[in-house]
Amino acid sequence: MEFSFSKKGFSTNSKTLNPNPNPKPSLRAPKPAELPAPILGFRVWQQHQQQRSSSSSSSAAAAAAVAAAAAALLRGRAHSALQQRSGRAAAAAAAAAAARAAAAAAAAAAAAATAAGVQQQLQQQQRRQQQLARRQQLLLQQQQQQQPLLQLLLLQQQQLAELQLHS
To answer: Per residue in 36-78, pLDDT tens?
Structure first.
């Protein structure tokens, strides 16, 4: 990768994997002041690096590459974590909505079953009342049919009693 610096920031050209085709080997360990600052303070560090001499531009480019890679990695991880969280939240919300829908369906089914049970009980009660009304009507018809016979029987008993008195 090739890096270029300007006042606006740095840009990369990913034609090659080596940031500097002719690196100068460094035998000394970097000082803490030369190490990149945390990602949040990257711009301050970058400005500080730009103000340094041009001889350290290759090390600044390498440090900028490391910082840029770290920033990209952290952004990727943060985005991935956010997607996982939002995915989990969406899955949890979908599961909760499905549970609410299932509960509502169960309540509706219970209400329908209750309504069907109540309707069935009402129908059975209506059938019983209709049967009772038919029986009462049949009894009334039988009484009406038997009434003349009873009157005739009473008349015959009276006549028989009179005959027994006169004899």
So the answer is: 545 445 555 566 666 655 445 555 556 566 666 666 666 666 6
d(Cα 73, Cα 53) in Å, to the nearest integer? 29
Give the amino acid at 59.
S
- Judge whether residue 130 has pLDDT over 80: yes
Beta pairing partners, 10: 5
Residue-wise pLDDT tens digits, 12-47:
555 545 455 555 655 665 555 555 545 445 555 566
Q: For the chain, give the DSSP string.
A: -EEEE-SS-EEEETT-S-S-SSPPP--SPPPGGGSPPPGGGHHHHHHHHHHS-GGGHHHHHHHHHHHHHHHHHHHHHHHHHHHHHHHHHHHHHHHHHHHHHHHHHHHHHHHHHHHHHHHHHHHHHHHHHHHHHHHHHHHHHHHHHHHHHHHHHHHHHHHHHHHHHH-
As a whole number, the mean pLDDT across the chain is: 70
Using alpha carbons only, what angle is made at residue 128 by residues 124 and 134, rounded to the nearest 5 degrees? 145
Which value, in Å, is the radius of gyration of the alpha carbons in the chain? 52
CA angle 9, 10, 15 (to 5 degrees): 160
- % of residues, the chain, pLDDT over 70: 46
